[in-house]
Structures are given as C-alpha cells and as structure tokens.
C-alpha cells in the first residue's frame, strides 16, 4: 500500500493538469463540461490565476489578478512549462452566480461567494435563508466535482495522449 505522503506528492500534479484542462475547455470546447443535471450552468475565468514553473530546485510563481485582466502572461508561463496552481472561477446558473478559487495541489476550494442573491423580505425566516444559501453552495460544489469527473474520464481515456494533449499544445502555441 502506498504511503499517504508519497501518494500525495506523486499525484499532486493532477490538480494542476485539471485547472489547465479546465481553462482550455472553457475557451475552446465549453460544451464538454455541460452536464445534464446542471443544465444552464456555465463558468468563466475570474479575476485571479496563479501559475508555478519549477526550474531545477527553485520555483517561479506568477500571480495574475484584477478585473478584466488579460491572460497573456499566464499563457506565456504555460508556454515555458508552467502549471496553473490556483484559479478563480465564476460559475453561473439560471438563477445564481458564484465566485470561488480552486487550488490545484489539493483540489481545495476557498473563497466561495454567492454573487447574485435573490431579494428577500425582511420578515422571512433567517434559518430558511441560511439553509437555501448552503444548498446553493453545495450545488456549485457538486457541479465542480462533476466537471472533475469528466476530466478524470478524459485523462484516463486513450484520447488524452492522442488528441487532448495535442489540442492543448496547439491552443497554447497559437495563442498570442
């Protein structure tokens, strides 16, 4: 049996590959992450991305943040062999919008915020409002886990090396 620490260090790249694949899919083939259960959900890159590039025994970190920021520097880092270690996403449904940050190393989520909330009457039950907010946060987390399952199926398929990697490399090299 593999020691937990060894397994963690051996496979932590999977989260970084997931974030890179997700950026690629969001720009090139967003229909790949359409999920029947989550009809009407869409996602886009938010206002922050962190990339890491390891040279020998040192790591270069690039942090890109700001509203409507261009991602040219991020693409340049990918061209140099960098990996996305953190990505801010804005996920939208028909009735709600969330902002969250996904960290690649442990596939952890932080900073989950509901951006658009429905107007509530002051006399409404506060407990019901809280439970509704929790339910909507659980919904976006379930959507993210479903997208990760799509990624894993793609990663483990024969198409990963033959087609997906080729398409991603072309996307990185063609992007100015």
Give short descriptive properties of this protein.
five-stranded antiparallel sheet; alpha+beta; globular; 176 residues; 5 strands
Write the layout of secondary structure elements.
Blueprint: H1 4-11, H2 13-28, E1 42-55, E2 58-65, H3 72-79, E3 83-92, E4 97-103, E5 108-116, H4 126-155, H5 159-174
Write a structural description.
By secondary structure, the protein is an alpha+beta fold. It is 44% helix and 27% strand. It contains five helices and five strands; from the N terminus they run H-H-E-E-H-E-E-E-H-H. It has a five-stranded antiparallel β-sheet, with helices on one face. The chain is globular. The mean pLDDT is 86.
Structural class: alpha+beta
Average pLDDT reading: 86
CA gyration radius, whole angstroms: 18 Å
Shape: globular
Give the termini distance in whole angstroms. Answer: 46 Å
- Which percent band covers the strand fraction? 25-35%
Strand order of the largest sheet: 2-1-3-4-5
Contiguous low-pLDDT stretches (5 residues minimum) are: none
State the major sheet.
Answer: 5 strands, antiparallel
The topology string of helices and strands comes to HHEEHEEEHH
Number of helical runs? Answer: 5
Overall number of strands: 5
Helical fraction: 40-55%
Compact description:
With 176 residues, the protein is α+β, with helices and mostly antiparallel strands.
């Amino acid at each position: 049996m593999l020691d937990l620490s060894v397994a963690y260090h051996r496979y932590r790249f999977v989260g970084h590959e997931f974030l890179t694949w997700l950026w690629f899919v969001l720009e090139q083939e967003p229909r790949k992450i359409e999920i029947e259960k989550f009809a009407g959900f869409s996602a886009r890159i938010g206002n922050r991305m962190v990339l890491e590039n390891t040279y020998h025994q040192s790591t270069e970190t690039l942090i890109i943040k700001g509203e409507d920021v261009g991602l040219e520097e991020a693409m340049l880092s990918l061209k140099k062999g960098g990996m996305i270690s953190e990505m801010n996403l804005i996920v939208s449904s028909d009735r709600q919008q969330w902002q969250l940050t996904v960290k690649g190393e442990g596939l952890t989520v932080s900073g989950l915020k509901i951006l658009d909330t429905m107007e509530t009457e002051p006399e409404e039950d506060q407990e019901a409002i809280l439970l509704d907010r929790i339910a909507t946060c659980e919904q976006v987390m379930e959507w993210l886990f479903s997208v990760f399952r799509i990624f894993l199926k793609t990663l483990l398929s024969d198409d990963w090396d033959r087609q997906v990697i080729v398409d991603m490399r072309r996307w990185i090299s063609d992007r100015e």
